[in-house]
Amino acid sequence: MATARRPAVAGWFTMDEEQPQLLGSRCTACGAVFFPKQESFCHNPACAGGDFEEAPLSRRGRLWSYTTNHYQPPPPYVPRGDAHRPFAIAAVELEAEKMVVLGQVPEQVKLESLRTGMEMELILDTLFEDDEGEVVVWKWNPVSEADGR
Amino acid sequence: MAGAAGEVAVLGVGMHPWGKWGRNFIEYGVHAARNALADADLDWREVQFVAGGETIRNGYPGFVAGAAIAQALGFNGAQVGSAYGACAAGTQAIATARAHILAGLCDVALVVGADTTPKGFFAPTGGERQQDPDWLRFRLLGATNPVYFGLYARRRMDLYGDTEEDFARIKVKNSQCGAQNPNARYPKAFGLDEVLASPVVSDPLRLLQICATSDGGAALVLSSMEFARRRTAKPVTLAAVSTVTPQFPNTHLEMPNFATDSAAAQRAPALSFRDSIARSAYEQAGLGPEDMDLAEVYDLSSAMELDWCEAIGLCEPGEAARLLRDGDISLGGRIPVNPSGGLGAFGEAIPAQAIAQVCELVWQLRGEARGRQVEGARSGVTANLGLFGHGSSVVVRAH
Ligand SMILES: [Zn+2]
Fold this sequence. Notes:
- The complex is a heterodimer.
- By secondary structure, chain A is an all-beta fold.
- Chain A has strands at 5-7, 23-27, 33-34, 52-56, 60-69, 87-94, 99-104, 119-130, 133-142.
- Chain A is globular.
- The mean pLDDT of chain A is 93.
- Chain B has a domain at 8-120 and 214-226: Thiolase/Chalcone synthase (Peroxisomal Thiolase, Chain A, domain 1).
- In chain B, the strands form 2 sheets. In chain B, strands 3-2-4-7-1-8-11-10-9 form a 9-stranded mixed beta sheet, with helices on both faces.
- Chain B starts with 7 loop residues before the first strand and ends with a strand.
């Protein structure tokens, strides 16, 4: 039985199971940070920069807003089972980067437990499984007080 | 350039009713164009420029909508322009036609947009396209369009105290107007309980609060003021057409993006993208929101209509639900919003939608919007936003 865990997209996040991070890029000329990575030209109209360094993003942020998928999205979404189960999607505001980043919320997190402004943390979780193993993506998980962190 | 110097006349407007007709989009475009030409009392062979709002779902002819519709009407040798701007494609076409007229390159132009849509969610085209953010948002997030609408709606609830009932009341309000509009897809006036009983799609939004995908077509005949004055003493005019793009860093979470721009190294602009769209049109027209008598805005969801009320300057951020509760944006109120019934009553026919907004304003300003008329309307504004940074706003004025 294959158990390999591989990222759903190459180069967008680290595969660190404990402390995963999204990987953006930073313009070496003006400091602007981009996610997903910009690698050939800077979007800042005042900058002609074209050199970028990898910029791991903050692992925690505040919930900017959230919603659900009560219906199964169309392809290329890959269903996780025969019957669609609603799951939440979070928009999280990163303080240092001053940007909002989307991510799924793990299926076991109840919608009712989410509140705008609560602290969220990046984790790795299964997006779907195929013959070669588990396909993994980043998700936003509530930092519960029970964690004591 | 402000005020009357930059105006063009709207000689005619026409539509093909929105629905799920399942025919080729060119049929809807031709139907709408012929209605607009008849409304203008103009022979098609007199049209010197054809601007087509393009669709992307109809194969080869879909990508060349201007020429495809000109051919269907019978090639007359006119100049042609075809414009793509996602939901703002119609305004791109209007802007192209208007610029040709203002530059003196033509006297009279036909603007057409039409679409045939698939059933269900809008989805990206097929294949394995790992470089395409529109493909990746479905694969990595399952982020359908309603997901973005749900995020905006929930944000309003948590930030401003808007309620699910507020959002449902938008649908009720607009469906009452839509029921009076022969071009709308849904002839039904929904009750509050019905809306709140429809299934949740993307919390807090329900099926009846999210716009459907429709077939439809809309067209305008535009001309120079000089050409128009030979036909009518007081034409309705386009006082402004805005196709503004965002300013970096864009801090509004836009479909289909995964993230906003970062405002850490560069300060966010004073006006957000949405707030800049109608502002740019007002500046062109030399008018302000206080001069408007009605508005047609892009209610992809019922809650989004409230976002637009604020973005086009009808009230301060966070106050739109109060406008709704006070009846200000209902028919008979201070500034009715979406008296056509809006997307909630029409559904999206993407390249036609921004043109249809202008058609409605023209009928309203002429006093021809039977059953949904905004009494004494003299000026109106449209607002819309196309994927990938296509702002869209038109100010229409009676004289
Ligand atoms: Zn730069």
